[in-house]
């Protein structure tokens, strides 16, 4: 029997001035019975915003 467990915490910070996501963090943690645990982190951040005309 192969046991696999995942945890996916997700955080978002919104910018009120532009009413959109300013920063986002997504983590993926895995645990397996037959191997080492794994971690991955994706981070995105708004660094510049230009208003449309």
Explain what you see.
0% of the residues lie in helices and 64% in strands. The chain contains no helices and four strands. Strands 1, 2, 3 and 4 form a four-stranded antiparallel beta sheet that branches. The chain is rod-shaped, with a radius of gyration of 17 Å. It starts with a strand and ends in an 8-residue tail after the last strand. The mean pLDDT is 87.
Give the tags:
53 residues, mainly beta, four-stranded antiparallel β-sheet, rod-shaped
Explain briefly what this protein structure is.
Helices cover 0% and strands 64% of the residues.
How is the topology of this model organized?
Elements: E1 4-7, E2 10-15, E3 20-32, E4 35-45
Antiparallel strand pairs: 1-3, 2-3, 3-4
Compute the separation of the termini in Å.
Answer: 59 Å
What is the beta-strand fraction?
A: over 45%
Could you describe the largest sheet, including whether it forms a barrel? Answer: 4 strands, antiparallel
Succession of helices and strands? EEEE
CA-based shape: rod-shaped
Q: Kindly name the structural category.
A: mainly beta
Question: Which percent bin holds the helix content?
Answer: under 10%
